[in-house]
Amino acid sequence: MSKKELHQEKILYEKTLKVSLDTSALKKAFANKEKEKKEILHILSNPVLKSSKIKKEITNSGIHISSQNMDIKALNFLMGKILNTTFNITMLKIKRISESKSTLEVKIKW
């Protein structure tokens, strides 16, 4: 093998290694179904969200969260927690009812 071929193989190996490490990190972040389930249920059990009467439907593929009467403080808390984690959000609907109330619908898959 010539020096040029060896150098090209080394570059290819480094690229493959980087992709492999990135894939591994993504798998660790998104592949743990039980961890995600536990984390979202922990967030939903927070006292800030009690007055919102949040309905949750848990399935094998994810969770559907909805509330018809959520105050702004609770909505800000929930969105801050959900959007700053590695949840796979497939649907997010927020509709304003009044100055301080809104409706929410979120689907998260795992």
The count of helical stretches stands at 3
Structural class per helix/strand content?
Answer: alpha+beta
| N-C termini distance | 47 Å
Ranges with pLDDT <50 over ≥5 residues?
A: none
Number of strands: 4
**Helix amount:** 40-55%
Overall pLDDT: 89
Strand % is 25-35%
- In the sheet with the most strands, the strands line up as 1-2-4-3
Radius of gyration: 21 Å
Question: How is this structure best summarized?
Answer:
The protein is α+β, with helices and mostly antiparallel strands and 110 residues long.
Model description:
The chain has about 110 residues and is of the alpha+beta class. The chain has three helices and four strands, in the order ααββαββ. Strands 1-2-4-3 form a four-stranded antiparallel beta sheet.
Walk me through the topology.
Layout: H1 3-30, H2 33-44, E1 55-58, E2 62-71, H3 72-83, E3 88-96, E4 101-109
Antiparallel strand pairs: 1-2, 2-4, 3-4
Which descriptors would you attach to this protein?
47% helix, 110 residues, single chain, four-stranded antiparallel β-sheet, 3 helices, elongated, alpha+beta
